[in-house]
Amino acid sequence: MENILDKFKLDGKVAWVTGASYGLGLAYATAFAQAGAKIVFNDINQELVDKGLAAYKERGIEVYGAVCDVTDEDAVAKFVADVTEKFGGIDILVNNAGIIKRIPMIEMTKKQWDQVISVDLTGPFVCSKAVLPGMIKKGSGKIINACSMMSELGRETVSAYAAAKGGLKMLTRNICSEYGQYNIQCNAIGPGYIATPQTAPLRKRQADGSMAPFDRFIRSKTPAQRWGTTEDLMGLAVFLASPASDFINGQVVYIDGGITAYIGQDPSQLDESKFAQVREDDTVTVGDK
Ligand code: NAP
Ligand code: GCO
Q1: How many angstroms separate the alpha carbon of residue 203 from the centre of ligand 2?
Q2: DSSP 213
Q3: Cα–Cα distance between 99 and 45 in angstroms, integer?
Q4: Could you tell me the distance, in angstroms and rounded to a whole number, from the CA of residue 271 to the centre of ligand 1?
Q5: CA distance 20 to 24
Q6: Atom 48 of ligand 1, residue of closest alpha carbon
Q7: Taking the CA of residue 237 as centre, how many other CA atoms within 13 Å lie in the half-sphere pointing to its CB?
Q8: 242-262 tens-digit pLDDT
Q9: Cβ-based neighbour number of residue 265 at 10 Å
Q10: 121: closest CA among 81, 153, 77, 151?
Q11: Which residues are within 8 A (CB) of 34 and not within 5 positions of it... i.e. 6 or more apart?
Q12: For residues 55 and 62, is the Cβ–Cβ distance under 8 A?
């Protein structure tokens, strides 16, 4: 009988993580590499690709990286063709690339709205459409979308982002519905509030050094009273990319420290002295766990 841990191995698989120069994408790709996969990634410009190549080299991970805008269908088709020629195809796609614009809806321009929808929702459509034919031909494939708590909940200033992430939840379910028959699983990771550059503005200490009100708010809504770290998400990513999850399809798995299950406590009751300074470089200090 096969050892269950072998079900989590990605040996011989090619994994494409979009926008994976840093943050959650870098963490997902690192986890996949540790599980045996060959990593390919793209980012929006050469500076970021170079930043990513350096980060992977520092981690001892051999990767292929190239500039590719996930909203550009021709660029995506070329990226997939190049990777297929070099490595034989793509077994795992993580639609990680994303942007957010925190602007009150009535002040948001249509151009700003379109930019967020284009990257966060149309990008995953373009990239998934590009890899599905190869997955169908192979008879297997894994697509993992970067959903969010905003796939379920709204909040002030993130209308476009929430609409995109809500749509991405339904795109996840539709890819499952349309291509599950080809042994292709499409699921989503729904992170809570994770310490990355994207959320750094929400944690920035106030002039007097005290905790940001939003930081205090998120901790009061999280049973563990802490922000997630990129490392917190690595295990789930490997699980959803591996044969261990072959009978899971169309699901959004929330990995949020319990926020979506908890009504929260009065933020003023939090004992701030318990929390180590969360460094502005977005790394949650160990003492903060
Ligand atoms: P992020 O700041 O959202 O950026 C992800 C990467 O995608 C960045 O390198 C970004 O480049 C790149 N990108 C942006 N537009 C692109 C395009 N058109 N084509 C290719 N790449 C593009 O990073 P993150 O915080 O690690 O989040 C990763 C994903 O998880 C995102 O989809 C995010 O919405 C989602 N998520 C994050 C959190 C969180 O708390 N951090 C929680 C839930 C979900 P730039 O640096 O130039 O923007
Ligand atoms: C915000 C945050 C969130 C997180 C994440 C939560 O401004 O509220 O950026 O949107 O990025 O999506 O799951």
Answers
A1: 12
A2: H
A3: 14
A4: 32
A5: 7
A6: 99
A7: 30
A8: 999 999 999 999 999 999 999
A9: 14
A10: 151
A11: 238
A12: no
Cα(74)–Cα(71) distance, integer angstroms:
9
- pLDDT (tens digit, 9 = 90+) per residue, 101-113? 999 999 999 999 9
Using one digit for the tens of pLDDT, what is the confidence trace for 160-202? Answer: 999 999 999 999 999 999 999 999 999 999 999 999 999 999 9
Q: How far apart are CA 199 and CA 154, in angstroms?
A: 16
* Residue to mutate, 43, 80, 172, ligand 1, most ligand atoms under 8 Å from C-beta: 43
Residue 228 one-letter amino acid: G
Among all chains, which residue has been given the structure tokens 């795109």?
A: 171
Residue with tokens 């990319």: 241
Catalytic residue among 28, 56, 64, 161: 161
Helix (H) or strand (E) holding 166: helix 159-179
Give me ligand 2 centre to Cα 156, in Å: 11
Over the chain (289 residues), the average pLDDT of each successive run of 10 is 95 98 98 98 98 98 98 98 98 98 98 98 99 98 98 98 98 98 98 94 90 94 94 98 98 97 94 67 38
Distance CA 243, CA 127 (A): 22
* Cα–Cα dist 179/37, whole Å: 23
Whether 119 and 161 have beta carbons less than 8 Å apart is answered as no
